[in-house]
């Protein structure tokens, strides 16, 4: 509702659980719009299984700018024709393997204030786009659009304004060179939940709508976005068991059955903050009076690594082995990157249909 011109293409990497992908695929197929941002063979296959092979071509943008040969060939075999590039060697690869692909040029942005910057790795500088477009034209390739990403978890108001101005400049150059530009991909960066002092979804939406009206007014232009955490963050909670307790005058240490090698990897890779959990004992939630006064404590994960620390100052009441901690909004960039370190399997998933 707040972005009426923009189709969401869910960033599968954020949480690739089939329940999330299938729920969104159902919505997209029912409503006629929407799709998925994929970055690998496995993600393409996951989406194809959800939407059907016959729909994968129009429901997927292969947004990884630097792809393995096998991934390009797999995308072609699946009918996924929209692929992203940001360098000349990728163009040479695509000219050989998939010459009739529909290409999007990814443009670098200022994402210095994002939770997870991406422009240090991907995106062509605007001053190099003219030469890249000339190279694509010399190879006989079709460039149909521009993409960018303001960084995952963008807290900066105005980031989309600058990125859209850069995209407009590249659109103009591409059209000058004779390319028919039909697609604009504004990437992700939308928050999973609004936070005080940071740009909200409504803030970003207002900027995007204003700039689209000013710079890209044509209703014939298809505009898509790649939200991940916006959809996934609140869709999953984490229920963690207390497996051991070490009491100390300096603050108790609690050992949990998941840690930074599991779903709490988000503390490292996503620069996330640990949400305050609810406490369950004997199958029910403890109230504040029953739980007792909180005190700073340390939370460790289950591995034999001292680095596996979730928090060193979280205020919690006295816990016991067998208690459970329910952490909310743990759906974005958590279980997606969990490992098998120490032979400890990733957390099991329980799916609840709340319709």
Automatic annotation (TrEMBL):
<feature type="domain" description="Orn/DAP/Arg decarboxylase 2 C-terminal">
    <location>
        <begin position="235"/>
        <end position="331"/>
    </location>
</feature>
<protein>
    <recommendedName>
        <fullName>Ornithine decarboxylase</fullName>
    </recommendedName>
</protein>
<dbReference type="InterPro" id="IPR029066">
    <property type="entry name" value="PLP-binding_barrel"/>
</dbReference>
<dbReference type="InterPro" id="IPR022657">
    <property type="entry name" value="De-COase2_CS"/>
</dbReference>
<feature type="domain" description="Orn/DAP/Arg decarboxylase 2 N-terminal">
    <location>
        <begin position="2"/>
        <end position="233"/>
    </location>
</feature>
<feature type="modified residue" description="N6-(pyridoxal phosphate)lysine">
    <location>
        <position position="13"/>
    </location>
</feature>
<dbReference type="InterPro" id="IPR002433">
    <property type="entry name" value="Orn_de-COase"/>
</dbReference>
<dbReference type="InterPro" id="IPR022644">
    <property type="entry name" value="De-COase2_N"/>
</dbReference>
<feature type="active site" description="Proton donor">
    <location>
        <position position="304"/>
    </location>
</feature>
<keyword id="KW-0663">Pyridoxal phosphate</keyword>
<dbReference type="Pfam" id="PF02784">
    <property type="entry name" value="Orn_Arg_deC_N"/>
</dbReference>
<comment type="similarity">
    <text>Belongs to the Orn/Lys/Arg decarboxylase class-II family.</text>
</comment>
<dbReference type="InterPro" id="IPR009006">
    <property type="entry name" value="Ala_racemase/Decarboxylase_C"/>
</dbReference>
<dbReference type="GO" id="GO:0005737">
    <property type="term" value="C:cytoplasm"/>
</dbReference>
<dbReference type="Pfam" id="PF00278">
    <property type="entry name" value="Orn_DAP_Arg_deC"/>
</dbReference>
<dbReference type="GO" id="GO:0033387">
    <property type="term" value="P:putrescine biosynthetic process from arginine, via ornithine"/>
</dbReference>
<dbReference type="InterPro" id="IPR000183">
    <property type="entry name" value="Orn/DAP/Arg_de-COase"/>
</dbReference>
<dbReference type="GO" id="GO:0004586">
    <property type="term" value="F:ornithine decarboxylase activity"/>
</dbReference>
<dbReference type="InterPro" id="IPR022643">
    <property type="entry name" value="De-COase2_C"/>
</dbReference>
<keyword id="KW-0456">Lyase</keyword>
């Amino acid at each position: 509702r707040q972005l009426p011109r923009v189709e969401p293409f869910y960033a599968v990497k954020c949480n690739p659980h089939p329940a999330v992908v299938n729920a969104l695929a159902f919505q997209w197929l029912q409503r006629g719009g929407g799709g998925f941002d994929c970055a690998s063979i496995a993600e393409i296959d996951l989406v194809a299984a959800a939407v059907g092979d016959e729909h994968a071509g129009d429901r997927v943008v292969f947004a990884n700018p630097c792809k393995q040969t096998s991934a390009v060939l797999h995308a072609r075999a699946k009918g996924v024709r929209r692929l992203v590039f940001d360098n000349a060697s990728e163009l040479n690869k695509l000219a050989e393997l998939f010459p009739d692909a529909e290409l999007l040029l990814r443009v670098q942005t200022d994402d210095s204030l994002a939770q997870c910057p991406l422009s240090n790795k991907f995106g062509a500088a605007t001053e190099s786009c003219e030469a890249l477009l000339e190279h694509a034209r010399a190879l006989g390739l079709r460039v149909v659009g521009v993409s960018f990403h303001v960084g995952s978890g963008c807290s900066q108001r105005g980031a989309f304004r600058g990125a859209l101005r850069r995209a407009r400049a590249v659109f103009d150059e591409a059209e000058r060179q004779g390319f028919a530009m039909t697609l604009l991909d504004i990437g992700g960066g939308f928050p999973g939940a609004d936070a005080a002092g940071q740009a909200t979804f409504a803030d970003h939406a207002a900027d995007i709508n204003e700039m689209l009206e000013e710079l890209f007014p044509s209703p014939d232009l298809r505009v898509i976005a790649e939200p991940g955490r916006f959809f996934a963050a609140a869709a999953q909670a984490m229920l963690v068991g207390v497996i051991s307790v070490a009491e100390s005058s300096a603050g108790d240490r609690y050992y949990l059955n998941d840690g930074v090698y599991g779903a709490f990897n988000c503390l490292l890779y996503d620069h996330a903050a640990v949400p305050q959990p609810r406490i369950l004992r004997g199958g029910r939630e403890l109230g504040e009076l029953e739980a007792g006064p909180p005190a700073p404590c340390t939370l460790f994960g289950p591995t034999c690594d001292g680095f596996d620390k979730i928090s060193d100052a979280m205020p919690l009441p006295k816990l016991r082995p067998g208690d459970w901690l329910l952490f909310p909004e743990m759906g974005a960039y958590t279980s997606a990157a969990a490992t098998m370190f120490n032979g400890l399997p990733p957390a099991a998933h329980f799916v609840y249909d709340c319709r």
